[in-house]
Amino acid sequence: MSERTIGRAVGALLLLAFVGYGGGSALVESGSGAVGTLSGVLDHQVRISAGALLMLINSVAVAGIGVLAFPVLKSRHEISAYAYLMGRAIEAVMLAAGVVFLLLVVPLAREWADAGAPDASVLEALGRVAKEGNRYSYQIAMIALGITGLLFCRVLLRERLVPAFMALWGLAGYAVFLAGAIAEVLGYGIGLALSVPGGLFEVALGVMLIARGFPAGRSLDRDGPAGDASPALR
Predict the structure, then answer these.
(1) Can you give the pTM of this predicted structure?
(2) In Å, how far are 10, 87, 107, 146, 173 from 205, measured between CA atoms?
(3) Structural domain boundaries, residue 75
């Protein structure tokens, strides 16, 4: 498979991940009522479950990005390639764990509907804990993305796999993104605002890669250019 084809596949997965998680989380929020409450969950169970499935599609896409990008990065900087693959795997797993937390509100809502007043208050508290579990899982995933995204963009810049301005945008965006995710874990609610530059970068990169892929010139059916089996460790 050529690097141009791989680039286009990576671009498609970047956009799929963005749409999947954004659309899925919107469905879940619209179906689960006010944050931290169980009221209305049973009336919108299908909507919540559909949103959760969309969010799981995002996890599959994220893992696919790491796997597809691995040979492209490995032929240029092996350490960054393995780090990026690991970071994307951690992101995918943590986002999937967050979806499990969200789905817990459905059985909790069933119990809440059948419970008396004392038990209902406990179940409401558990519902809020489930929502917080999703939030922390998401932020840990974003920390992994921010760290490995910096390594990814460093390779993009050094190897000129994308225009320099795009790689620099990614470096700045992921750095701000990482700061926002860490701030959220520490209790400062500024992560959403700081995620905008990095999020827009991933959308723009996805569109660009679909249009042009990575630069032609290498075929990953062989180990490096002209069959040279010596990966770069620079």
Answers:
(1) 0.85
(2) 9, 18, 39, 15, 12
(3) 3-164+206-213
